[in-house]
């Protein structure tokens, strides 16, 4: 009998322990697909990550993938999920469904407020999350790589009333891929590839780039989203000059100078420039990466994005500003040139701005003196004569005409050290 009671008591204790001490529940957060999220004219797919721990009114981040990618692939291949767990924001991962899985950043329907293409579907995703999760509508952000970087530019232009800031990896300016009526390479005026833009050959003035953004939402007078851009200096898929064109566009849109207020090196080979204000949430920030092609984001860059958005609680971290370059006012009928450098050990990228005087230019030649041991290895938006010592750069066919007082840019990459003296410019 005693053995029976002991066995029964053991069974009761085991049952009580099972009832009173259940196993700790596993994390419920997982990437899930959402359907029926609203207007979706191009049939995009939506995946959503909602972290277990989040504030009452969380922020929202839209993370947009590259061509051939998908929302789940971008979820798996980037650090935004782990950062969402750490800081409590929700992440939307859209997926393109057209051939090649690229987003439409070129058709007229994509480049306008209340669009009729991919941006409309992404906006529906944002509205769905805002309504279902009671998010802070003032903290909605977007980031993306390659096609997603281009879409980041498009969404900021189309919906400045929705997004507080964006971060574009390897993108191009808003409108750079625009299809135009009568284009023999795109007679249907549809979403597609724009070789001129991708090659970094579409060069505009800051005002012209800014006008494209403003035309997307005529009459809009509200606040404009801040912009952060990343680009590899040796990118040949969406060429490096697009980095400078993005900066020209968004500094113009936000009304700040194109001359950086600060330059620093967050990591070896990374050059960061800030425009307007030297704080973490500057109006515009650019990060140029030496020796890297079309392969961003790199480890640690997602955290820079989250800091730029303010999702980690960061406010300001001033850096020591560099001295802005001095310029000489353009003379009548002449031209001047200034150069800015992104340098690293053993190499550099130079961006040269050519400015017309009081008379328009119909052509120009810039002469640059390189230090001993320096050699030009790559040039864009100009034709180089020579590669070391004194090198001359002649305008390309599309940027030789410059209006009086206007400017254009070209660039070159080299080994060794970049130029240390002001380039000479000759009109004609």
Detailed description of the structure:
- 23% of the residues lie in helices and 25% in strands.
- The chain is of the alpha/beta class and 428 residues long.
- It folds into 2 domains: 32-309, Alpha/Beta hydrolase fold, catalytic domain (Rossmann fold, 3-Layer(aba) Sandwich), CATH 3.40.50; 335-427, Immunoglobulin-like (Sandwich).
- The strands form 3 sheets. It has a 10-stranded mixed beta sheet, sandwiched between helices.
- α5 links the parallel β5 (140-145) and β6.
- The longest helix has 19 residues, at 2-20.
Q: What's the tally of helices?
A: 9
Mean pLDDT: 86
At the fourth level of CATH, the homologous superfamily of the largest domain is Alpha/Beta hydrolase fold, catalytic domain
The number of E-state strands comes to 18
Name of the top-level CATH class of the largest domain:
Alpha Beta
Strand order of the largest sheet: 1-2-4-3-5-6-7-10-9-8
What's the number of domains? 2
What about the largest sheet?
A: 10 strands, mixed
CATH topology (level 3) name of the largest domain: Rossmann fold
* Outline: globular
Percent of sequence in beta strands: 25-35%
Intertermini distance: 113 Å
Signal peptide: 1-28
Keywords: Hydrolase, Signal
GO molecular function: hydrolase activity, hydrolyzing O-glycosyl compounds; polysaccharide binding
Protein name: Esterase, PHB depolymerase family
């Amino acid at each position: 009998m005693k053995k029976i009671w002991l066995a029964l008591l053991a069974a009761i204790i085991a049952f009580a322990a099972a009832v009173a001490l259940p196993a700790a529940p596993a994390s419920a957060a997982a990437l899930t697909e959402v359907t029926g999220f609203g207007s979706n004219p191009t049939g995009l797919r939506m995946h959503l990550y909602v972290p277990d721990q989040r504030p009452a009114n969380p922020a929202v981040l839209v993370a947009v993938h590259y061509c051939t990618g998908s929302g789940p692939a971008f979820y798996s291949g980037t650090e935004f999920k782990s950062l969402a767990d750490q800081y409590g924001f929700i992440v939307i991962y859209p997926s393109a469904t057209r051939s090649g899985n690229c987003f439409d950043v070129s058709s007229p329907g994509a480049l306008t407020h209340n669009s009729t293409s991919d941006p409309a579907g992404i906006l529906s995703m944002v509205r769905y999350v805002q309504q279902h999760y009671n998010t802070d509508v003032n903290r909605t952000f977007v980031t993306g790589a390659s096609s997603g970087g281009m879409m980041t530019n498009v969404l900021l232009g189309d919906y400045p009333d929705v997004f507080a800031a964006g971060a574009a990896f390897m993108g191009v300016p808003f409108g750079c891929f625009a299809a135009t009526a009568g284009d023999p390479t795109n007679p249907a005026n549809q979403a597609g590839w724009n070789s001129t833009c991708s090659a970094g050959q579409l060069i505009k003035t800051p005002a012209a780039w800014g006008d494209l953004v403003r035309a997307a939402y005529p009459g809009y007078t509200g606040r404009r989203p801040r912009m952060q851009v990343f680009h590899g200096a040796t990118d040949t898929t969406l060429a490096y000059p697009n980095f400078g064109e993005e900066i020209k566009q968004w500094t113009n849109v936000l009304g700040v100078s194109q001359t950086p207020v600060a330059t620093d090196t967050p990591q070896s080979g990374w050059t960061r420039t800030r425009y307007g204000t030297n704080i973490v949430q500057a109006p515009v920030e650019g990060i140029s990466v030496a020796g890297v092609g079309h392969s961003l984001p790199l480890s640690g860059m997602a955290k820079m994005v989250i800091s730029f958005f303010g999702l980690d609680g960061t406010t300001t971290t001033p850096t020591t500003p560099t001295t802005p370059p001095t310029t000489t006012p353009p003379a009548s009928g002449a031209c001047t040139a200034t150069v800015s450098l992104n340098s690293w050990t053993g190499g550099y990228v130079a961006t040269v701005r050519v400015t017309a005087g009081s008379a328009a230019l119909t052509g120009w030649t810039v002469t640059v003196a390189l230090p001993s041991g320096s050699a030009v290895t790559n040039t864009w938006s100009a034709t180089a004569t020579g590669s070391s010592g004194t090198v001359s750069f002649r305008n390309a066919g599309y940027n030789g005409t410059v209006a009086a007082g206007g400017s254009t840019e070209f660039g070159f990459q080299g080994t060794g050290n970049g130029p240390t003296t002001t380039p000479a410019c000759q009109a004609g």
